[in-house]
Amino acid sequence: MDRIPYDPALERCPDFAGPKHQRARAYLIADAALADITTDEEAAQHLRDEWTTENNEQRTLYQQQVEADKAVEEQRVAQEQDARRLQSEEKKKKEEEDLKEKEKARAVLHPIDRSKGIGAAQVRLHPYARQKMERREQFPLWYCLSTACRDAAEEARLITDDTFFDITRSSDGKLAFLPTSSARPSKNAIPDVLLTWAQLLEARTLFLQSLHLGNFPQSHVAMFSEFYANMEMHAYAKQEVGRLALVRYHALALEDWYDRNRQGDPFNLALIDEARLRECKEDIRDKKGRTQDTVFERKMSEVDVLKRRLESLMSSPSHSLPQSPRKRQRSDSMTNHPPVSPSPQKRHASKESFAQSFRKADPDQATDHPSRCPLCLGCFRHNIRTCERTVLWDDKTPARCKRNERGHLENPAGQELCSNWQRPNGCTDNRHPSKHECSGCGDHGHGAQVCSLGPK
Fold first, then answer.
1. For residue 139, which of 186, 91, 176, 197 has the smallest C-alpha distance?
2. Whole-model pTM above 0.70?
3. Residue 378 pLDDT exceeds 60
4. What stretch of H or E contains 409?
5. Residue 198, helix vs strand vs coil
6. Which of 97, 222, 443, 445 ranks highest by number of CB atoms within 10 Å?
7. What is the pLDDT of residues 336-356, one digit of tens each?
8. Residue 255 phi/psi, 5° resolution?
9. Do residues 393 and 377 touch, judged by C-beta distance below 8 A?
10. Which segments within 63-192 are labelled E, that is strand?
């Protein structure tokens, strides 16, 4: 059925009584089948009735067409809405899936305890030591010091896009990336035998806390804990030489245990071998004895040099030090005042003053040897204010401290030390007790002048 292009209700009924429809009216009057139509008026009314009937039918059909079009439109709109809804649901589902994938790569956020503050700084094991611990291999205990941990954290903050990475496997079996530089040994590391007693006690805490990285059995964890506890409670820990012997014993015993463990014949490290510990103590004493002999010979040589210099000065005609050209010219111009030779008492005083210029200034702590250099602990003649030696006076032991840009002493942790504390007179200022630390061994009970690492 053809569509009705417009609304039939808008059509107007034609004027069937007019001259335009005269022929149609005449045809109706002449039609024998329409006997009831005899006049023009009846014929015009018949035409109007037929047009009205046809128009009403068209109106009905048009209304049905409009309703059908409306139903089709509603169906189309509904289909579009369903399509948009499905598309939106699919988009939302995809976004949720993408969010889940992102959440898998993100760190887990745990519930927050609002009453808990930051607390003390978290100490992290050096990456090189962490790698060794995970492999259950030996590494210098220096890596468990706070200094080494801070160095590792600083290197981690300096990682750039050009940094190369190594692939390693963590304790839970997952692969992880570590910066190549951070997983390498530190150039500042020192062997266990050169640690101080204070450094050994500090490092053992983080060492014991990190044993879980290697998944050590509980029996081994207990053995290491008892080993350090037995050393700390040993009678040698109360003696200066004994502490040095314990540090040496610790380095040798730990190295032997790892070697024997690789061979499949480990021993109980917690059992202190008293005989071997005494050998370590004797080795320390022998080393100190040889050092003292060397220092004594050096001192005697310095005394001979000073004696010859004093004798040379005293035997000169003027009994005085050589003058500069300006002073010599001024002295020559004073012809009315000839030079007077100093008296024997003044010469003696000058000799004592020159000899005491290298001695300690405190009469209560006067000794027979010159003051020690706070950096290398040496008593030989050199400028102790600008000394920058990297080894101690024996030319073997690495110096513990160094000078910073301002020329002040700085310990391995980067803290400036009190210079007065290292002098013979000591320091009475109690406003900076943390700076009262021996520059030689790190002990807070004395300064450089009485350090056991210095010459006797």
1. 186
2. no
3. yes
4. strand 409-410
5. helix
6. 443
7. 444 444 444 444 444 444 333
8. -65, -40
9. yes
10. 165-169, 175-179
